[in-house]
Amino acid sequence: MPRLTVDGVGTFTVPEGKRLVNALEDECAIDQLHACGGIARCTTCRVTFTAGEPARMTKAERDVLAAKGLAGTPGLRLSCQITCDGDMTVQATSRLAGSGRADAGRRSADAIEPQPEWT
After folding, report:
1. What pTM value is reported for the model?
2. Among 11, 26, 46, 108, which residue carries the largest CB count within 10 Å?
3. How far apart are the C-alpha atoms of 80 and 21, rounded to whole Å?
């Protein structure tokens, strides 16, 4: 099973293939934002990889990062578009605490949405 390290929080074992956004909430107890419900629309679920960044990216992730002017930012990815397929280390910088939001967003589905087209 992959190991997910969250800078300043700890290292956790996560189920292979689990969506990163859900692993952050479930296994790591992080108040990760995901205002759009994990469908690659809002970028509130963003994390910054410091190690183990996946090489592949969904078209939805690529397009929303470009539209928001975030494409090309080193390590910046959307946790809703990533599955835990190997060891990784992230900074969870987009969290409910201090955001002023009422909640983190509706729970993301178990499978990546929209249906992933890998780039």
Report:
1. 0.96
2. 46
3. 5
Residue 19 buriedness (CB in 10 A; 0-12 / 13-18 / 19+): buried
Burial class (CB in 10 A: 0-12, 13-18, 19+), 103: exposed
Q: Which two tokens stand for residue 104?
A: 């983190």
Q: pLDDT tens digits for 35-70? A: 999 999 999 999 999 999 999 999 999 999 999 999
Geometric angle at alpha carbon 95, from 29 and 100, rounded to 5°? 125
Please state which CATH class domain 3-91 belongs to: alpha beta
Rounded to whole angstroms, the Cα distance separating 74 from 107 reads 27
Instruction: Kindly list the domain boundaries of the chain, sorted by start residue.
Output: 3-91
Tokens of 50: 């410091």
